[in-house]
């Protein structure tokens, strides 16, 4: 009986994996993926022992797991609380939740869908759960044609097989390229940061005082930065290294390579591989980037516009940050070179990476509003100096769902209102910490999966009851359980926002 049950389950599981991807929207797969990742991460943090004797509550542990899985880096617990094993677990969560890695899963799913759909179109009578042998035949173009078919049908079938084989190979090569890019960039970054932390005494002493292993710190920080998470093993984030300009410059490229400039870098790699190998697949990937449905593969023209937009927005932030904060207290004790590098690092992280070298609570409100705008912008926002003409006669009728779906701003406004309701008591009793600007920054930061936070200070409380203790946690770490739960929803919503970027199109503000 047990053998029959095992046999049944062994056949049911592969069929389920083949059936589900073709009958459900990708949104639900991504949602399920991040939910499972968050739950597994929570269980791992729960059973492992922290570095210091403490007993964090389950909601804060789940909050941290969700934050790492969705690459949001919203801090509810001090980072130095976690042991080496817990930091490695968080590193794994950030790696698996990063946009580049999840895009590899999208490519694998697209390959399976291609095999499934084309197999049915070539042989409609074949069942939906064909064996891997058929898939291999599709890949190699070895599909037998019945003798009874006409010459035209045979030729059409042959052309179809060739087309399928080319597209399948394009997906396969692209998967290998993305995986190679993912591993090589992070390995190089890990090696350089490890070398720096070993050679430079001032940086090494910081880790020694905190009891953090150099290898753990280097791996954790590089993976976190590349995944645009923003977690750092130190309580102070990167503030404790603001005078180590060399370390900031080593980490800075990963802010762009894993996020805003990933499409241009991927296109550049494909161009090099096309020149070196001369394979037709790389040429197809570069000339027809939209054919595969891989959202990170953009045309050369669009990549140029994206690069210009990214650096243009950085220049705007840099100039404003300099003009407002150059002689402020946050720059005390820094020379000209350190100010330049630290300012560049701070504004570059404002888009999505979320690492900080300055205390955001000490930055002026004007700059905080600028950061809010930057965090709201999607990673591939670009200025398109081309007017797209719309043919009214060819406009598609909107579905009922499209007509009631709100825009991103609408949902964020709703989330801010809900948080203000759950934290209404704190807004009245502690207005210097709990104000609408700080709440808005926290919500937009969670939505953009950035991790910027103004933190919480006992010195800003109007009524000191003697029980408040300062700790290195984000502002949301001081929220009520209801407020934290709302922010968890915001983190999931932000991580899956690509499925609703066209929301609100049925609304005409005129």
TrEMBL record:
GO terms for cellular component: plasma membrane. The keyword Ion transport applies. GO terms for molecular function: sodium ion transmembrane transporter activity. The keyword Transport applies. It is a multi-pass membrane protein. It is found in: Membrane. It comes from the Eukaryota. Keywords: Ion transport, Membrane, Transmembrane, Transmembrane helix, Transport. InterPro entries: Cat_transpt, TrkH_K-transport. The chain crosses the membrane at residues 28-45, 87-110, 173-199, 211-234, 294-316, 360-378, 399-419. Belongs to the TrkH potassium transport family. HKT (TC 2.A.38.3) subfamily. This is Trk system potassium uptake protein TrkH. It comes from Vigna unguiculata (Cowpea). The lineage of its organism: Eukaryota, Viridiplantae, Streptophyta, Embryophyta, Tracheophyta.
């Amino acid at each position: 009986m047990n053998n029959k049950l095992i046999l049944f389950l062994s056949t049911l599981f592969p069929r389920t994996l083949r059936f589900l991807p073709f009958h459900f929207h990708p949104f639900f797969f991504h949602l399920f993926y991040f939910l499972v990742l968050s739950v597994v991460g929570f269980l791992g943090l729960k059973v492992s022992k922290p570095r210091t004797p403490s007993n964090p509550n389950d909601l804060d542990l789940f909050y941290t797991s969700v934050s790492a899985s969705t690459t949001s880096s919203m801090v509810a617990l001090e980072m130095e609380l976690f042991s080496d094993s817990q930091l490695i677990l968080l590193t794994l969560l950030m790696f698996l939740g990063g946009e580049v890695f999840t895009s590899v899963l999208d490519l694998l799913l697209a390959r399976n869908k291609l095999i499934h759909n084309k197999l049915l179109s070539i042989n409609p009578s074949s069942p939906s759960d064909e064996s891997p042998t058929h898939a291999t035949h599709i890949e190699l173009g070895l599909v037998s044609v019945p003798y009874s078919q006409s010459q035209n049908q045979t030729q059409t079938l042959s052309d179809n097989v060739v087309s399928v084989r080319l597209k399948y190979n394009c997906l396969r090569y692209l998967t290998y390229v993305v995986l190679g890019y993912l591993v090589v960039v992070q390995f190089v970054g890990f090696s350089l940061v490890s070398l720096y932390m070993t050679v430079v005494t001032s940086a090494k002493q910081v880790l020694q005082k905190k009891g953090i292993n150099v290898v753990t710190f280097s791996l954790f920080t590089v993976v976190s930065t590349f995944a645009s998470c923003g977690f750092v093993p130190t309580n102070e984030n990167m503030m404790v290294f603001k005078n180590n300009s060399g370390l900031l410059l080593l980490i800075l490229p990963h802010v762009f390579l894993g996020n805003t400039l990933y499409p241009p870098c991927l296109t550049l790699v494909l161009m090099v591989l096309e020149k070196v190998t001369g394979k037709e697949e790389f040429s197809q990937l570069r000339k027809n980037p939209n054919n595969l449905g891989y959202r990170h593969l953009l045309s050369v023209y669009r990549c140029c516009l994206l690069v210009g937009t990214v650096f243009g927005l950085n220049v705007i932030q840099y100039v404003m940050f300099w003009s407002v904060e150059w002689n402020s207290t946050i720059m005390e004790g820094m020379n000209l070179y350190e100010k330049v590098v630290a300012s560049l690092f701070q504004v570059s992280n404002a888009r999505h990476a979320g690492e900080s070298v300055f205390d955001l609570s000490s930055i002026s409100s004007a700059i905080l509003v600028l950061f809010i705008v930057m965090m709201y912008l999607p990673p591939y926002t670009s200025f398109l100096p081309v007017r797209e003409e719309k043919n009214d006669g060819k406009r598609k009728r909107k579905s009922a769902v499209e007509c009631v779906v709100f825009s991103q701003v609408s949902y964020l406004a709703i989330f801010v209102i809900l948080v203000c309701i759950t934290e209404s008591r704190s807004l009245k009793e502690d207005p210097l910490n709990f104000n609408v600007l700080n709440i808005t920054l926290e919500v937009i930061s969670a939505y953009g999966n950035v991790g910027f936070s103004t933190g919480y200070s006992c010195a800003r409380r109007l009524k000191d009851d003697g029980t408040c203790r300062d700790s290195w946690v984000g502002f949301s770490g001081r929220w009520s359980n209801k407020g934290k739960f709302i922010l968890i929803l915001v983190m999931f919503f932000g991580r899956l926002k690509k499925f609703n970027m066209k929301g609100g199109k049925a609304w005409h503000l005129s």
